[in-house]
């Protein structure tokens, strides 16, 4: 838990941690500690290359242990940067990764109930109870609302509600209707259960359970229709909801945008295995594995989280937290890099599964014209960006059909992760994606191209120029 959390900060005049115990000290010691800490250290550490060191406070002779104070936090969670001054956005990235870990826990729990038990015949009718259709007929589940509420609450808890601006995909309209009482009850229960798990992920949980009003307020604060601040978070609580309800790939995407630039991105991929060799098997094979191996087995390595901070030149991947374990930063994180393949005949390209919002025929024509011979990797959601960033594929192309506008939360986190992993992401004219115009990627020229390197990227753009006028997009 970052030391600058408002709740811990509010308790500093009374106690600090010392070897796992709370100690009492004077106001002079408090002032000295705060001055030393704020001038010399970053609140927390993220990059696994900078191993965190535990906060240790020297014990003056007039310090006395105080049994009256409860233990506030595990001292292993109160970490400092090993570099004086730390790195910009490092605390935001730390909290974001932990929050997405919790969000993935929510999604796995809901998906297991929604898909696996239903398909096994143990939970008949659960789909009808947990999936709701939006006005555009796209699905939204209990997981979408629960993740949005939970991340909204965790960010507000960590940075203060007045300092947090979030734009996200879901609203409270369906939950607020009279016939949405059952959905709202399920969402409230899921959010409270998730928040009770927060300490396991190194974050603070609220005092007592939240009611429907607080949960609706948390979802509503992510006002996608409101005016964007100079600095705001963009959240897609479950990107690829159709994949989610089918038991397929989906993602939780959280990014921080400042002055139109994505400064950090976190991408949770609960069904995308850490080990590349597992990609040869459908993720539902996990159900068989879990029946053949003990519940604590980590042989499957189901799910991962990718993250990056703009300008760092690094992107990282860590496994999802296994059941009943606590997150120990950096949670076995490993660096990821894009593929070095630049021969189109050897390259793999990704494209969306859904045909409603993109043209498979146009991308197929482009693939043929540049010499791509492999079958495309078709996956739901921003998992496509994960595939590029960690070298499982080399090209992602998306060309929307007429009338469809790309939303910022569908791309922001993936873009910064691919770029920091060494890749290139632009529109089809070669221009950076513009996240400064609101909730849509306004001014997008034709489509989006993400590649593992500049050579492949250049060939794709030339093919687009040659093919565009003859297309029907």
UniProtKB/TrEMBL annotation:
Chain positions recorded as Mg(2+) binding sites: 169, 236, 239, 410
Region (Disordered): 59-83
Domain of life, source organism: Eukaryota
Cofactor entry: Mg(2+)
UniProt protein name: 3'(2'),5'-bisphosphate nucleotidase
Family of the protein in this entry: Belongs to the inositol monophosphatase superfamily.
Enzyme Commission number(s) of this protein: 3.1.3.7
One BP term from GO: phosphatidylinositol phosphate biosynthetic process
The entry's keywords: Hydrolase, Magnesium, Metal-binding
Keyword 4Fe-4S: no
GO molecular function annotation: 3'(2'),5'-bisphosphate nucleotidase activity; metal ion binding
Catalytic activity: 3'-phosphoadenylyl sulfate + H2O = adenosine 5'-phosphosulfate + phosphate; adenosine 3',5'-bisphosphate + H2O = AMP + phosphate
Biased composition (Polar residues): 59-68
């Amino acid at each position: 838990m970052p030391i600058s959390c408002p709740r811990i900060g509010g308790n500093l005049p009374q106690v600090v941690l010392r070897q796992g115990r709370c100690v009492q000290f004077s106001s002079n010691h408090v002032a000295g500690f705060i001055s030393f800490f704020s001038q010399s250290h970053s609140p927390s550490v993220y990059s696994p290359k900078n191993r965190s060191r535990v906060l240790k406070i020297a014990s003056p002779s007039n310090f006395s242990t105080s049994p009256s104070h409860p233990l506030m936090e595990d001292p292993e969670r109160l970490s400092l940067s090993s570099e004086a001054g730390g790195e910009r956005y490092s605390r935001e990235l730390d909290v974001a990764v932990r929050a997405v870990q919790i969000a993935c826990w929510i999604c796995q729990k809901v998906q297991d109930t929604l898909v696996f038990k239903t398909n096994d015949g143990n939970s008949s009718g659960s789909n009808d109870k947990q999936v709701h259709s939006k006005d555009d007929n796209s699905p939204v589940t209990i997981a979408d609302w629960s993740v949005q509420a939970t991340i909204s609450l965790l960010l507000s808890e960590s940075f203060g509600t007045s300092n947090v601006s979030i734009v996200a995909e879901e609203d409270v309209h369906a939950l607020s209707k009279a016939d949405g009482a059952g959905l709202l009850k399920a969402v409230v229960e899921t959010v409270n259960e998730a928040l009770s798990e927060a300490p396991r992920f190194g974050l603070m949980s609220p005092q007592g359970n939240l009611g429907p009003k607080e949960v609706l307020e948390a979802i509503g604060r992510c006002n996608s229709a409101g005016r964007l601040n100079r600095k705001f978070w963009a959240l897609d609580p479950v990107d690829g909801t159709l994949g989610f309800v089918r038991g397929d790939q989906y993602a939780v995407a959280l990014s921080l945008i400042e002055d139109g630039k994505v400064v950090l991105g976190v991408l949770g991929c609960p069904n995308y295995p850490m080990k590349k060799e597992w990609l040869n098997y459908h993720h539902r094979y996990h159900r068989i594995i879990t029946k053949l191996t003990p519940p604590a087995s980590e042989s499957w390595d189901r799910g991962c989280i990718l993250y990056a901070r703009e300008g760092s030149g690094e992107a990282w991947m860590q496994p999802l937290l296994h059941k009943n374990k606590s997150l120990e930063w950096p949670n076995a994180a490993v660096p990821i890099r894009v593929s070095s393949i630049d021969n189109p005949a050897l390259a793999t390209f990704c494209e969306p599964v859904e045909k409603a919002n993109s043209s498979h025929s146009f991308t197929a024509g482009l693939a043929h014209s540049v010499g791509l011979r492999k079958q495309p990797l078709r996956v739901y959601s921003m998992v496509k960006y994960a595939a590029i960033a960690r070298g499982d594929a080399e090209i992602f192309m998306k060309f929307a059909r007429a009338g469809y506008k790309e939303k910022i939360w569908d791309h922001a986190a993936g873009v910064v992760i691919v770029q920091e992993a060494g890749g290139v992401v632009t529109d089809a004219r070669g221009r950076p994606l513009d996240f400064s115009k609101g909730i849509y990627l306004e001014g997008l020229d034709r489509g989006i191209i993400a590649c593992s390197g500049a050579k492949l990227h250049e060939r794709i753009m030339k093919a687009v120029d040659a093919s565009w006028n003859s297309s029907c997009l």
